[in-house]
From TrEMBL:
Record's bilayer topology term: Multi-pass membrane protein
Name of the protein: Nickel resistance MFS transporter NreB
Pfam families linked to this entry: MFS_3
Transmembrane segments: 19-36, 48-68, 80-100, 112-142, 163-196, 230-254, 266-286, 292-310, 385-406
Keyword Nuclease tagged: no
Organism of origin: Olivibacter ginsenosidimutans
Amino acid sequence: MANAEPYASFKYPEFNRFLLVRFAIVFAWSMQFVVIEWEVYNITKSPLALGYIGLLEVIPAVLMALFAGHVADRKDNRTLLMNCITGFSLVSLGLFLLTWPRVVADLSPNKVLIGIYILVFMGGFVRAFIGPTVFSLMAFILPRRLYPNGATWNSTAGQLARVLGPALGGFTIGLIGVHWSMCVIFGFSLLALITLTGIGKKPIVNKNTDQSVWSSLSEGLHFVFREKSVLGAITLDMIAVLFGGAVAILPVFAQDILKVGSEGFGILRAAPAVGTSLIMVVSAYFPLYKNAGMKLLSVVFGFGVSILVFGMSTNFWLSVAALFFSGVTDGISMIIRDTILQLRTPDAMRGRVASVNAIFVGSSNELGAFESGLTARLMGTVTSVIFGASMTLVTVVATGVGLPAFRKLDLEPDLKKQLD
């Protein structure tokens, strides 16, 4: 059944500003990751060195995630997000300086590499707070009945940024170089910061100031493990992204296997996000909450098949098509997961639940990057991608067989409760 109000969330001006902030910061982060990947591979010519980028970012993100959720539930989310974006801007500025030939002329490549890794590590701390803060902030901008619609457009804005960020990064590397590409990234972080000033401060729902930090964190974890639909969705996505993510070693495919240069690298890097963005726009008209469990299992299986095809391909455009369809299936998965979280999470626990989600799903991107780099070193690039895709397919089958209740998950009753 088609959605009668696909653009309902846009009636709220603050939501429009929120989407621009979301777009700008994800654009900057995605472009920065691509530019740094390219620079690191140029310095080292090592797939494992690419894996270290993800590992160094994910370590602080995971270590601080639960505490960040605790803070997000007790602070004004607008102000906290401003602090996060300021921190990201400083990291980007540091990378801008580290890629400036005049600044690093007297430094050895190893020292430059270490400096990049340190800044990536610092960015991981910032990222730990951004996820739960953004998730919580949206809940104070829209009425609850519009959460599924808002989640769709929020995810669409993020994925559109992931389309344009990597693509622009790939092209600007060739046009203006790594250094000035970092300048563009810094500019987008400032755009996010300026736009955020147009959103007012938000109330603090969780005012239980007597609760200890450990008790607060335990409460969030207990909720996630008790709510099986939430736990099942984020666990399935985590395993799929952990083993099925091949984007971390795309520079190897672009330079050594497909031999398409920086422009081809940008197209490959953007292809999954293009597919995700298109399917998210379509889903605004045709919501995915009915029979959500079976749909989620199906699309994650499709994601694994797409990555398998990519790993076996030696044709550039077949590889692009495979990555595109991996984005389509991943986009559907993301929408279903975000809708589950928005509908089934109490307002006072949004930050903590989002932080658990960040550990399970968000951080699995970086762990997946390290896994891809490590297995590429041990097995070879192509074999590592085929192995990861196969593990994703096995996980989906095991989940479907082992959790029959998850197969029957349907979010339509939850939405009807919000409308009544």
